[in-house]
Amino acid sequence: MRLLRVVHLVEALETGGLERVVQALVRHTDGRRFSVEVLCAVKGGPVAREIEAAGTRVRILGARGYGPRAILSAARAIGERGADVVHSHGHFAGVVGRVAAWWAGGAAAVHHLHTIDPTLEARHLRRERLLLRLTRRVLCCSEAVAEHAVRDLHAPPHLVAVVPNGIDPPPTTGRAEALERLGLQRDGGPIVGCVGGLSRHKGQMVLMHAVGQLSGGMPRPTLVLVGDGPERPRLESEAASLQGRVRVLFAGERPDARSLLPAFDLLAVPSIGREGFGLAALEGMDAGLPVVASRLGGLPEVVEDGRTGLLVPSGDVRALAEAIDRLIANPQESRSLGAEGRRRVESRFRAASMTRQVERVYEEAHGERRAA
User: Could you tell me the pLDDT band of residue 28, with boundaries at 50, 70 and 90?
Assistant: First the structure.
């Protein structure tokens, strides 16, 4: 039987949740039934290098926008590959990939929505709605994203498939090693971790002020921010003004981020504005950590309030501080939440299971394309 040829199309493969999902799909795709290649429309990045090192071809097109030149370049690459399915990820790649798949003439277009983006302008929404005519399936990482697809993008419900993100088991790192990697010592003060790009919508400023409000009876807490981004200068300036109440460590972008998680007493996911899924919350749960997260977007589908972590109103500094205080003051509850979180990931959110579900979508989309 001929292998079904799949091309993943992304804008770039820097470090982030979308990129890690693509990497997991490539890693776990059944090589007995599918062959896989990755196209980066604009540039590569660290995850692109990791994917290539593992044996999957990554091609970089060097596009500067999603105009005709970029679409023709992608269509040529798709045609040369003889792709049966083009799986696009994110808005930019979704424009290039779906038009290129149509232009190449034979591939079924599967578009993957990884987040809820309330910043899309009217012209972007019109474009998305037009592109749905070229789309065989819209993959959504959560029910919240699926609701966004139907409500805001006008995706027909029969095209929408919800496949939650999945991750591989965590690296085996102990607390002492994780602390050493961060250059920290266990001095009795609580350590709150946060992993994600330093952008306004990720809510690190809210978290910083919440940690600064923790109960005065405990040793000074440490907040570790793992990630980088445009918000870093503003966060660093604010951290300097809070020095007496909280110590803030900017760990930067780290390829070993999951190995650092055992250093934390809890993981915070304080997103504001948008959050399609919350991959960082999943990784925290897999490390056995209690998670405090915003009740926003897809996060309530990942973190079960009172069972694997605590959910708080998005942007509410006081509520976030109270939830963190509660977990620090109740280590037995924290351990129970962390243990249940790990069980939940193991049973529902593994990368191999995610990939099997996506493969079924590929086969359905390809079958419909051939029958059309």
Answer: very high
